[in-house]
Design a protein that fits this description.
Layout: E1 9-12, H1 18-29, E2 33-38, H2 41-55, E3 59-63, H3 69-78, E4 84-87, H4 102-130, E5 133-138, H5 151-171, E6 176-183, H6 189-201, H7 206-215, H8 225-235, E7 247-250
Parallel strand pairs: 1-2, 1-4, 2-3, 4-5, 5-6, 6-7
Helix pairs in contact: 1-2, 1-8, 4-5, 6-7
The structure holds NADP nicotinamide-adenine-dinucleotide phosphate.
Length: 259
């Protein structure tokens, strides 16, 4: 299938590793020019080089905190008229709600809810004017099935989910879609960190914890980030214009519900 987005311009957050990198690569393979963002300059420049030399598209690396006003301004200066946005960055720390003060909550809300809200605010009217826009927010399976040690993530992402549910319906008639992708277990640096944190809480070794987490996935394995990247590219395609306001779980069948 030709996704029909060659020549479009995308901004992808948190793109020097893991899921964001996979989304950027999948879009670039479809001929999309990508502006990719991460805080560590050396890493984002290296990934830009890799993606550019594999795909031949224009790849602009921006070293910035995508969840800060200055960071978003730098990104939008590099790509002022994006057709596609993938809102993604790091997840909040693990822990117990008894230990989180106001500052911890505000940081999680900023990084896992408001960063995406403000990026949408700053780009959606241009998309409406140009009659094409695709926005994908990488949230988490925790939106459907909360994860005990990830209370900050469970909560902040639920807020973003509510915002998208309403806003997506306001902009749909302009061929602008907003959807959330809910990853389950994907083999990334972040996932390994969480496995380590869970192992500590449950007094197990990392290897034991990894085996338990793997067994909980119906597919019997963790996801490959590119499996998520390819779904993201599809949601950003011309063909996906009738899908909006959705929360798409991609978790190898781990979530046990009928719906
Ligand atoms: P990862 O492997 O840790 O990669 C995170 C990427 O985001 C890195 O490139 C990091 O680079 C960048 N980043 C972090 N904070 C940033 C910021 N403020 N501004 C710009 N870039 C930033 O994480 P991942 O596993 O791909 O996860 C991506 C998102 O999906 C996270 O929010 C995570 O909680 C969520 N998620 C992941 C899984 C999973 O199984 N992997 C499951 C559910 C949800 P720098 O540190 O250099 O900025």
């Amino acid at each position: 299938m030709d996704l029909g987005i060659a020549g479009k311009k995308a901004i992808v957050g948190g793109a020097s590793a893991g899921l964001g990198r996979a989304c950027a690569l999948a879009l670039a393979r479809e001929g999309v020019d990508v502006t990719i963002v991460a805080r560590t300059a050396v890493n984002i420049k290296a990934v830009a080089k890799e993606i550019g030399s594999e795909t031949g598209v224009k790849v602009i690396p921006v070293a910035a905190d995508i969840n800060s006003d200055e960071g978003r301004a730098a990104v939008l200066q590099a790509c002022p008229e994006p057709d596609i946005i993938v809102n993604n960055s790091g997840g909040p720390p693990t822990g117990n709600f008894r230990d989180w003060d106001r500052q911890a909550w505000l940081a999680a809300l900023n990084n896992n809810m408001l960063g995406a809200v403000f990026m949408i605010k700053e780009t959606v009217d241009g998309m409406i004017a140009r009659k094409f826009g695709r926005i994908v927010n990488i949230t988490s399976s925790a939106v459907k099935a909360p994860i005990s040690i990830l209370g900050l993530s469970n909560s902040a992402r639920a807020g973003l989910t509510g915002f998208v549910a309403g806003t997506s319906r306001e902009v749909a008639k302009h061929n602008v879609t907003i959807n959330n992708l809910l990853p389950g277990d994907f083999d990334t640096g972040r996932h390994q960190e969480n496995t380590r944190a869970l192992a500590k809480v449950q007094n197990r070794t990392y290897e034991e914890m990894k085996a338990i987490r793997t067994a909980a996935v119906a597919a019997g394995r963790f996801g490959d980030p590119l499996e998520l990247g390819n779904l993201c590219a599809y949601l950003c395609s011309d063909q996906a214009g009738f899908i909006t306001g959705q929360n798409l779980l991609i978790d190898g069948g781990k979530y046990p519900g009928t719906f």
